[in-house]
Structure to design on (532 residues):
């Protein structure tokens, strides 16, 4: 009997849904908008996260050495730094490499190159650029150089400058802007998500409100609460599933368009992101659709089932 | 079968039924007549426990139907078939499905449904319209469908609240004959009406209501207002 009942409920729910025509289409569209908002919340967070990571990647502490510093002493400093737990990676740029880079950078600047030639010797110093495990650790790495007891006498004479403090202000500012944008974006999207869930909820409530006469007839015919409620929940779930499928399909052109136009601005290609996280995003849409659809139906029908 | 014991029903500002005492026994065909507002519909609502009496008790067999739990109430309603003036069919379901729904609701199995529904459709002469939706049926057809739905579950009692109120004379006569046929098969029928011809056609017990009180109760009555 259980399966017969279940079958009846599903068949009846499907028929209600397919015979309601325009009403069903309208609720699918409203649900689709809700799912779009949910996905854009995820997209926004992904884009801001990737910008934040980009900036974090660009942060480092660079130690410049005087031009006559012997390479062996620099290597000693490098080895000492490697022992710090905060340090993730150290890149050594030799005097020659620095010169090559400088020449590349100024390849169109004839005067500068000529001046460099006239100097005869290489005026540029070697440098070590240090990446931290976490951006918050740059402060302590740069302090390492302030504390003279960490360095031998020779080291002190060969270090020209440590440039962390110069970049610090800019980096801090960018980080706080992005963090702020992330929080603001999250808050705004969350409000939008809540509003659109409420709209979906109300749409489904209105549809069930239109059926209140029928619900009372079902009760008078002797139908039990579950048998009345079931088909409405099935319709709600169907709305959720179809809206999720519609959103999934629509997101392809939308993300391709956004990917083409906005990649530089948002930092990631949304189409690539959508493709590579397709499965998770699809499950999120399907899950939210089904949950919103069924819960709305359960709540909406509740008041008409009380005797 | 049904006993009203000093039943009074008041709505804010008006008294709809006052001090009603009556007994309806198994197999009777009872017409409850009266002008609009005399309390006929309230009476049927009390029998179905759609409304609770302000005072007094309504019994079905030996149980007070207003003290039933919602599960027992559901079981009680399964023993009663209802026909309304405005048909109250399920608009999203075909004629066949409307009848089948009543059987599904009381958990009949698929074989019974497949067997009984065509039979009842034939009884009310709607076999050709089985796959029509209610909005594709005429008033008389809708009411016959509603009667088919009411009798498919083989209830002990049929309550028809103004079943002919929206019908023309020919359809009215059809519906009354159908109800008489059902009554002949042993089902108790309670019909409310303010149609003289209906009452005179039935020639059975007539209870006359006026301003919420029973003013006449005739064994083989006529319309007397």
């Amino acid at each position: 009997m259980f399966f017969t009942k279940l079958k009846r409920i599903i068949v009846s729910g499907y028929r209600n849904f397919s015979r309601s025509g325009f009403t069903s289409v309208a609720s699918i569209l409203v649900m689709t908008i809700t799912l779009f908002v949910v996905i854009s919340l995820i997209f926004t967070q992904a884009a801001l996260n990737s910008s934040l990571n980009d900036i974090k990647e660009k942060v480092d502490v660079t130690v410049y050495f005087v031009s006559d510093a012997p390479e062996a002493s620099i290597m000693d400093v490098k080895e000492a730094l490697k022992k710090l737990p905060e340090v993730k990676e150290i890149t050594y740029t030799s005097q020659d490499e620095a010169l090559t880079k400088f020449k590349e950078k100024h390849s169109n600047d004839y005067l500068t190159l000529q001046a460099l030639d006239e100097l005869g010797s290489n005026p540029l110093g070697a440098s070590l650029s240090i990446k931290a495990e976490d951006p918050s650790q740059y402060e302590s790495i740069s302090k390492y150089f302030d504390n003279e007891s960490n360095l031998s006498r020779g080291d002190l004479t060969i270090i020209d400058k440590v440039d962390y403090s110069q970049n610090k202000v800019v980096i801090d500012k960018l980080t706080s802007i992005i963090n702020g944008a992330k929080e603001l974006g999250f808050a705004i999207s969350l409000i939008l998500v809540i509003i659109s869930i409420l709209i979906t909820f109300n749409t489904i409530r209105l549809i069930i409100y239109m059926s209140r006469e029928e619900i009372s007839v079902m009760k008078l015919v002797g139908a039990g609460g579950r048998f009345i409620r079931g088909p409405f929940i099935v319709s709600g779930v169907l709305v959720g599933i179809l809206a999720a499928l519609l959103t999934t399909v629509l997101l392809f052109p939308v993300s391709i368009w956004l990917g083409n136009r906005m990649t530089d601005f948002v930092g990631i290609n949304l189409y690539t992101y959508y493709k590579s996280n397709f499965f998770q995003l699809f499950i999120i849409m399907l899950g939210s659709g089904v949950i919103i659809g069924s819960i709305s139906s359960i709540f909406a029908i509740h008041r008409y089932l009380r005797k | 079968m049904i006993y009203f014991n000093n039943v009074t029903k008041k709505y804010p500002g008006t008294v709809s039924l006052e001090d009603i005492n009556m007994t309806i026994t198994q197999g009777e065909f009872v017409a409850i007549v009266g002008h609009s507002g005399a309390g006929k519909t309230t009476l049927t609502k009390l029998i179905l426990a759609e409304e609770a009496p302000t005072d007094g008790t309504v019994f079905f067999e030996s149980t007070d139907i207003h003290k039933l739990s919602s599960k027992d109430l559901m079981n009680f309603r399964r023993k009663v078939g209802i026909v309304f003036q405005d048909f109250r069919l399920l608009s999203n379901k075909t004629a066949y499905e409307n009848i089948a729904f009543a059987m599904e609701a009381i958990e009949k199995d698929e074989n019974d449904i497949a067997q009984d529904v065509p039979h009842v459709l034939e009884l009310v002469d709607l076999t050709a319209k089985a796959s029509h939706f209610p909005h594709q049926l005429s008033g008389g057809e809708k009411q016959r469908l509603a009667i088919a739905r009411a009798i498919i579950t083989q209830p002990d009692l049929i309550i028809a609240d103004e079943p002919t109120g929206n019908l023309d004379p020919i359809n009215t006569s059809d519906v009354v004959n159908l109800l008489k046929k059902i009554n002949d098969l042993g089902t108790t029928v309670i019909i409310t009406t303010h149609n003289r011809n209906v009452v005179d056609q039935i020639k059975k017990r007539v209870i006359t209501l006026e301003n919420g009180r029973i003013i006449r109760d005739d064994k083989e009555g006529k319309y007397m207002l």
Summary: The first helix of chain A runs from residue 2 to 19.
